Write the structure tokens for this entry.
Amino acid sequence: MTEDEARTWAGARFDSAAMARLDRLAAIVTVESERQNLVARSTLDSIWGRHIVDSLQLVALGPEGVWLDIGTGAGFPGLAVAAVEPERRMILVEPRRLRADYLSAVAAALGLTNVSVKATKVEAVRDKAKVISARAVSRIAALFESAHRCADKETIWLLPKGRNADEEVAEARRAWHGVFHVEQSITSPDSAIVVARGVRRQ
């Protein structure tokens, strides 16, 4: 997906206010990446395709309700989703203090009062969520182990993965029950999104 295609895709789905927040987010990430290692510098020229739309494609898969994003890092997908759904409560879990402070500052700069940042590991979080996402954090089985206290039987897990998605699902099934589905990513033929519901330990 080219940058023009990514912007066109987003512009067809989200209003001008959301697009303005996304532009601001992209600008902040680009500038701040000069000071700290937010995203790979090689991806900054393709930030809309590689990071923003890669995050936004999750929105259509997530039901209404509290969204908890694990290891938000530079802001993806958590801040990108919050930018287009400013009425949804977003909880961003980021254990690195410098990164958590950055996320709080960006949320404030974008006027996103729906965002709360927890500077801790997800194992310490007790909030319940209708959607749990994690992008490039850990393997699926490990995510379930660390965050299952934040989920119930209706929670949807949205887990962007690379070409090893099916392998990770098979591994997770050895310890966890649930309904699993693998969606093809729209941004790369080598990427997928693992969608899980009803996750519970065997």
